[in-house]
Write a structure and sequence with these properties.
globular; 2 domains; seven-stranded mixed β-sheet; four-stranded antiparallel β-sheet; about 300 residues
Length: about 300
């Protein structure tokens, strides 16, 4: 597997949907950029405030109101600040957007211009030449939405930074992530110390998170998967009346009922009408979803790139 070359000129922006993603996804790379003399910033999209089961367990409460969520989010944000110091960064290198946890897809849909403007402000201020964001296929809805947000914000930007995607949730196929970070034992220990700072998450999920942290840190070049232009789903007829289709491009995000979406059925499946698939106007992303409340946090269909 090829390794990633970094230098004193590397300006790395790590995009983390929640506190702990910066450590799990990029804890080794952050250290290696700093060791090479480069500069790193961490952009935290949410404070991880919608995390009810660890909060109920640790605080010994059942109901969680808005004030409780804010308190929990502030605690997790403080944990992230301590974690980045274990990786060699000052606390000032961490910036939090404070967007809704488990709500990035809705935020992207309902405030597209606002989130795009905020993201581009960060890009202009830091001017990264390397960005790491979650993989599009990550099963957590906030992770997939974070990937879409990054790709849309970068559309039309010149010069275009290198954009790498990291996996966290789901069974990642190692062959799909050909860029491997070779770590020294000391760097791995610093990554584990950073993870230990996320005490709220380690209480219930410590063994799983430690396994993730000890697994090789891998990346893929974002956009390398390609797309056929054809929707990858043929949903059963019994669900179609409730299904919705999100279509996200640099021009905006549209939310259709499946039966009202502008598409045709061809031999290779459903195809959107009136949307460029050739990349001339930027990337096109689609998400199939049921807009129902559910205790299951992970996506069933998720986002796909056309």
């Amino acid at each position: 597997m090829p390794s990633l070359s970094v230098s004193a000129q590397t300006r790395l922006l790590v995009v983390a949907p929640h506190p702990d993603d910066e450590t799990l996804g990029c804890g080794l790379l952050i250290q290696q950029v700093l060791a090479a003399g480069g500069t790193v910033r961490v952009l935290l999209l949410t404070d991880g405030d919608n995390n009810p089961w660890p909060q109920r367990y640790i605080e010994r409460r059942v109901g969680i109101d808005a004030a409780g969520r804010r308190r929990w989010g502030a605690l997790r944000r403080d944990e992230a600040a301590q974690a980045v110091t274990q990786l060699g960064l000052p606390v000032s290198a961490l910036e939090s957007m404070g967007w809704p946890d488990m709500g990035l897809t809705a935020k992207l849909r309902d405030d597209t211009s606002g989130v795009m403007a905020a993201m581009r402000t960060v890009l202009r201020a830091f001017d990264p030449n390397l960005i790491c964001c979650p993989d599009l296929s990550d099963r957590h809805p906030d992770h997939g939405a974070a990937h879409v947000l990054c790709r849309l914000a970068l559309a039309g930007l010149e010069p275009l930074p290198v954009l790498l995607a990291y996996p966290v949730h789901g069974s990642a196929d190692a062959s799909a992530y050909p860029i491997l970070i070779d770590a020294t034992p000391e760097q791995l220990q610093h990554k584990l110390r950073a993870l230990a700072e996320h005490k709220t998450q380690m209480r219930l999920s410590g063994a799983r998170l430690r396994r993730l942290a000890l697994s090789p840190e891998r990346y893929m070049r974002a956009g390398s998967q390609g797309g056929s232009g054809c929707l990858p789903w043929r949903p059963p007829a019994m669900l179609q009346q409730w299904l919705r289709l999100l279509v996200a491009t640099p021009a905006g995000v549209q939310d259709f009922r499946w039966k009202d979406a502008p598409m045709s059925f061809e031999a290779d499946g459903y195809r959107l009408q009136g949307v460029s698939h050739d990349g001339e106007r930027g990337p096109v992303f689609v998400k199939l979803h049921l807009d129902w409340p559910s205790p299951w946090i992970f996506d069933h269909w998720g986002w796909r790139a056309l």
